[in-house]
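Technical annex B. To support the medicinal chemistry partners, we prepared a structural model of the target in complex with magnesium ion, based solely on the information shown next.
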Amino acid sequence: VPTRPDVRLRAFSAVVGTLGFLTLFAVLLRSDITRIAESPATGVVLALLLFGGQLRPIVVPRGDHHGEITVSPTFALALALVGPLWLALLVQGLAVVVEAMRARKPAEKVLFDVAEHMLTLFAARAVFCLLTGNDIRYGVPLDLPNELVPALLAGGVFFVVKHVLSCVVLALTLEEPLFSRLARDLPFQISASGVLLSFAPVVAAAVAQTLWLVPLLLLPVAAIHKSAQLAAERERQALYDTLTDLPNRALLRRRMSRALEDAERSGERFGVLLVDLDHFKDINDTLGHHVGDDLIVEVARRLRRNLRPGDTVARLGGDEFAVLAVGLDRPDDGIAVAGRLLDALDEPFTADSVRLDIQASLGLALHPDHGDDIDTLLQRADIALYDAKSERGTVRLYEPEADGHTPERLALATELRTGLQVDELFLEFQPKVATLTGRVVGLEALVRWRHPRHGVLMPDDFLPVVENTGLIAPLTLTVLDKALSALAGWRADGHDVSVAVNLSVRHLTDLDLPRQVDALLRGRGIPPSALVLEVTETVIMSDPSRAVAVLDLLRDLGVDIAIDDFGTGYSSLAYLRRLQIDELKIDKSFVTNVAHDEGDAVIVRSTIEMGHNLGLRVVAEGVEDDETLQLLRTWRCDVAQGYGISVPLAVDQVAAWLGQRNDAMSAFGDRWIAAALAAARHEAGLPFPPAGEEAAC
Ligand code: C2E
Ligand code: MG
Ligand code: MG
């Protein structure tokens, strides 16, 4: 059953078609075809140019699709101004038909296009003749400058008639208001065809003058072709992934914003799916990048094949893809799409004659159920993906309950944006000392937020909320900047210390981070070796492939990498070895009670030993008392950090603390040396702690 808009569209096409062909026949009937002989060369040359222009359209980048414009309107209008009208109509009609046949356009569309051109040319010519008093049927050379304004006005009419006719069709097809369509297309149309049309009087005058000018006229046309080609190429590079030819993140966002607009009008539901391959890095590493690349290309192909034409698959980088699935009726439809994609990826792959079984994880968020802007939807699909990755090879729909991103916490995320702008974040620094000598080796920067209403917030109060948002990157850069600025001051005062900064999950997937760190270090003139970046093992395990890549880049800079909270995650020792890290920080939960818990003692001791065997510096965090420090020293733990040495200090307390410590070092010296002796005795198999000796110190 045809819908109402369909009926209106057909009616409109029929009216335009009839009028167009009536015009053509009327003009042909009323004209004397032999009158071309008066200016045959002009007519023939313009006709050829018109024909050529129509068949060689210029491809222009227009948002995420490519529009086409032809230079033929310039020549068509020129011919309409100076040639016989019948010739202009006939050649134009023929060119449209030939072009349509080449592009295999449906017959209905061809008839409409021809009619549209007939009406446009006729209207332009009619206005020109009304203003100049010329015979509408036959042309004479332009009388310049007198006829310049009428010629330009004719161009204006040409433009308006064509633009309005095309927009009516589009508005009827897409069921949108005519005026919004007219207004939306206007800037592009003016910049493209408007400019071309204003060139028509020049062409008409030049061709009538001498045909020798024709090659010169073609030069700008060739130049336009060339630059349009370059622009299209550039646009393509900016919006598409080179390996897979899929849209990239930027284009995905554009399409999402269009989907949002469409959904607003039609109330339709759409879904954003994030797809991540599990263990892709292993394949890349063991079988080589070319196999990895082949695999990515094949994954892209399978994703594309299993979606409908209106959907979008984008490659976000590495092994991460996103799918925008539109026109979903129910949430279940989204899950069905995800399930279909998962199945498609489940089939074994063959790359370089190796059979590969790939698993993927998918996270899905829906509009309007889970968010009504691009960032929220992507963020929530990401949360769902992380959820899915914990079980690998599954699809997860975003679940608000499991998210922990309650409205108050989400409000925090919004407030943090302002907080960053007005500088509400500040750092405290906790010293790390060498257990054997007591020397301060560095300080760990710990972020705090002086919140206007809630007072000072600790990292655990707000970091989990921003972890998955775009804010974590600026936050970390702020922390890095503040930490390096403080460090520059202490180093200028002669303290040879380093500073440690914590990184979040997101950062290890951000290939831009190494460059930013490098720039910040250079800006402050700080050697990379004075910066330690702490990452937790959970971070690494959640996406080992990407993490390894980013960590390698950071290490290439010369920055030290520490594994934070070691022992709380599930890192495999193999990764630990491959990761090329410098420091292992044993989690405080094992350290704090080590003096009284045999189990913790075993863990800490063996971790220290393992760390040393891997050539790593071992740090114990959460050292709350001297007894623990003493034990760690005995066990040759390199560095200790904790309330027992110092609580985190405000930045201006640090300088004083460092100074005092230097003064006190000589006094403490004996004690550290005695302790070192104790450690040596222990090593030599003498009893430990040597009774009474400690008291003597
Ligand atoms: P972390 O990196 O393991 O930092 C050590 C945490 O242990 C700090 O808590 C510190 O105050 C606390 N601590 C220090 N000594 C002791 C002790 O002797 N006993 C006990 N029980 N705790 C001790 P804080 O400052 O609340 O930081 C918590 C976590 O927040 C940090 O754990 C780190 O993972 C994260 N964090 C802190 N600052 C930043 C930052 O700038 N960026 C990122 N991404 N994460 C940060
Ligand atoms: Mg840390
Ligand atoms: Mg820690």
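Notes passed to the chemistry partners:
Residues 686-697 have pLDDT under 50 and may be disordered.
The chain is about 60% helix and 15% strand.
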